[in-house]
Amino acid sequence: MNTDWRSHLVTGASTALVLVDIQNSFFHPAGSNYYEAATEIVPNLHRLLRRARASDRLVVHVSEQHRPDVEDFEYAKLPEHCIVGSHDAAFFKGFGPAGNSNEFLIDKRRMSAFFATDLDLLLREKSISRLVIAGVKANVCVRATVQDAFSLGYRCLVPRQAVNSNRPHLADAALEDIDRYMGWAVTLAEAEDALS
């Protein structure tokens, strides 16, 4: 099995950056899902975002948003979080769409950024075939997004230094699964290179 992501490049392929759930809920100390280790990846997320913007790459800002008047099915397993309009649901400082034509917002109500959203349609309209996917949590929303992306035919790169979890052993297992079955777990430098 060839694990080098460069050998799987499609001629003329275009790459997008997908940032998953960079929201106060996970990154702000007052967030309902905050964990201290999340802040460790913030500088690396900024690096990816700067590189994507400098290279005029498409950037997708994925935001978990739950309706205030709906008893969401996720609450069967998780406490209420990221309610539309709340501090929890807002983007963490320095993240979110910059207002230019290459940055898009995708709101989701489930773990995968593809489930019941128009993300796949958007990417196909923009002729995107390769994704750099980063954010939180490696073993939950990042993994679910990568799995759906792979099933839809996208080549997925996940920079190890730009994802993590409050359960490090599960983040490690998720990255191993991604690298073995669904994409490529790469270094931050390789992800930046892919966005260049």
**Integer count of domains:** 1
CATH H level, superfamily name: Isochorismatase-like
Shape: globular
Number of strands: 7
Mean pLDDT metric? 93
Describe the structure.
- The chain is of the alpha/beta class and 196 residues long.
- The protein has a single domain, classed as Isochorismatase-like (Rossmann fold).
- Helices cover 31% and strands 20% of the residues.
- The protein has six helices and seven strands.
- It has helices spanning 24-27, 42-54, 119-125, 138-151, 168-182, 188-195; strands at residues 14-20, 58-64, 103-108, 128-136, 155-159, 163-164, 184-186.
- Strands 1, 2, 3, 4, 5, 6 and 7 form a seven-stranded parallel sheet that branches.
- Helix 4 (138-151) links the parallel strand 4 (128-136) and strand 5 (155-159).
- Helix 2 packs parallel to helix 6 and helix 4 packs parallel to helix 5 (168-182).
- The mean pLDDT is 93.
Entry summary:
With 196 residues, this protein is of the alpha/beta class.
Question: What's the structural blueprint in terms of helices and strands?
Answer:
Elements (H helix, E strand, L loop, with lengths): L13 E7 L3 H4 L14 H13 L3 E7 L38 E6 L10 H7 L2 E9 L1 H14 L3 E5 L3 E2 L3 H15 L1 E3 L1 H8 L1
Helix pairs in contact: 2-6, 4-5
Pfam families: Isochorismatase
Keywords: Hydrolase
InterPro entries: Isochorismatase-like_dom, Isochorismatase-like_hydrls, Isochorismatase-like_sf
